[in-house]
Amino acid sequence: MKKFFQITIVLIGIVYTATSYLFLLLTVVSFKYNHLLNHEILNQERLYFQDDFLWGAGTASYQVEGGNFNSNWWRFEQLQGKIKNGDRTNICVAHYQRFKEDIDLLSELNLNSYRFSIEWSRVEPEMGKFNEQELDHYKQVLLYLKSKNVKPMVTLWHHSIPIWFEDIGSFEKAENINYYLEYVSYVVSGIGDEVEFWLTMNEPMAYITLGYISGKWPPGNQNFSKVSSLFTNIVSAHKQAYKLIHKIDEEAKVGLSEHSSYVVPAGKYNPIENITSMIIDYSCTHFLLKKVQNELDFIGVHYYYKQTIRLRHAFEVLTKKPEDFEDQSLDRAYYPLGLYEVLVRFKKYGKPLYITEIGVPDYHEIERDQFIREHVREMYYAIKSGVDVRGFYYWALLDSFEWNEGYSAKFGLIKVDMKTLERTIKDDSWEYGEIAKCNCVRND
Ligand code: BGC
To answer: Closest ligand 1 atom to the C-alpha of 257?
Structure first.
């Protein structure tokens, strides 16, 4: 019997290593982006995008509005030690009151699209009790955007949910999906005339992993027991919302946004790190997208950084440069080429792609203008390699409440003075405005 086990383990080892090398070989021979660029592109001074390309910036209701006291995040914020420096949203950056000023600034930057989210906990503060006035607020936002010729991209659920929905078990229970659909139906029937692009949800994998595995986000769970049902129900919620939105508005374009980092092995030739990178990339992004691919008119891609997989005592997932791993800040490993690689991996879905989030906080070594320029260029190269990218939304329009990080990570194109709430376009944001105006990027 003992021998049988030994042989089995050895066989598993051989198969695992052989498969790993096969994958490695496939990756190495697959594509290397420089090969795809022809000289014609490399010699152009400026790279031009298609005429109807969307240049935008995004926000999420909970991160900018303030006053979202019926949200699960508000309750979570009150717990000791959950938010850096004890920051609280309270009035936040008062986007709720100042949305016109913010949209004016977005227009000043020549952006032609704005991604924002509807706060479910405002529209339905108590189960089944919808608040018409709150829905009207969003209608006003949409009408203002229209008056400025700015196309909206609207997210229906961006991390924050009503307290009552969390208390009844959120998406852990299949029977709760209907509450989400009722909310979606209320919103889309009420303001759908003004919206072409809907995102049913933002980064559901973040909600699952941070809320139910690491416990860093509400509801602060740290066990796997609910993950499988949560995943299944979220997939089903998206599929049903997709059908529902189309029933209300046949013309609507409905998608979902998901995060994707560029996952690479620390050791190029280490088969175990190679295969683990592939597994992580697949399970964090593509596993979910594959399940919903028939219910997507487009995909919202989020790209921020490269993740390096290193095998030491156990697996480490490094979201910074390996040498900076001890640094606990949001100082991530920015890597523009990774955007190209990530976009190419989305080609298989055959759907239009919009980069619905990409951004850098203020204090990073790379300036915002350089960050944007280099990523826009990589996006262009991806388009030239046959990837159907139709829009780019910098994250974020404003300095905002960055979840666990509080106000310490300032991603905004627009600086907000936290005392006076005064807004100013940052010096290193103007180049993005120029890119949007010219619909092109410098190629030097
Ligand atoms: C989230 C945003 C967040 C951003 C920057 C994204 O994954 O959707 O809400 O502010 O990352 O960390």
So the answer is: 8
Supply the pTM of this predicted model.
0.91
Fill in the DSSP letter of residue 294: G
pLDDT at 223: 81
Output the CA 396–ligand 1 centroid distance in Å. Answer: 9
Helix ranges, 213-301 (H): 227-248, 271-281, 287-292
Give 274: exposed, middle or buried? Use CB within 10 Å, 0-12, 13-18, 19+.
buried
Task: Establish how many alpha carbons lie within 13 A of residue 90's alpha carbon, considering only the half-sphere containing its beta carbon.
Answer: 7
Residue 78 near residue 394, CB atoms below 8 Å:
no
Extract the tokens encoding 140: 């006003």
The two structure tokens encoding residue 138: 């969003």
Alpha-carbon separation of residue 343 from 203, 252, 334, 380, 396 (angstroms): 17, 24, 16, 11, 20
| 40, 69 Cβ separation under 8 angstroms | no
Give the pLDDT of residue 325: 43
Average pLDDT on 149-168 reads: 98
CA distances 149 to 52, 198, 377, 392, Å, are 13, 18, 26, 17
Confidence of residue 24 (pLDDT cuts 50, 70, 90): low
**Residues 326-362 pLDDT 10s:** 444 444 678 899 999 999 999 999 999 999 999 999 9
List all residues whose CB is within 6 A of at least one atom of ligand 1.
Answer: 60, 63, 202-203, 206, 259, 302, 357, 395, 402, 411
User: Whose alpha carbon is nearest atom 5 of ligand 1?
Assistant: 402
| Predicted pLDDT at 344 | 97
Element containing residue 204 per DSSP (H, E): helix 204-212
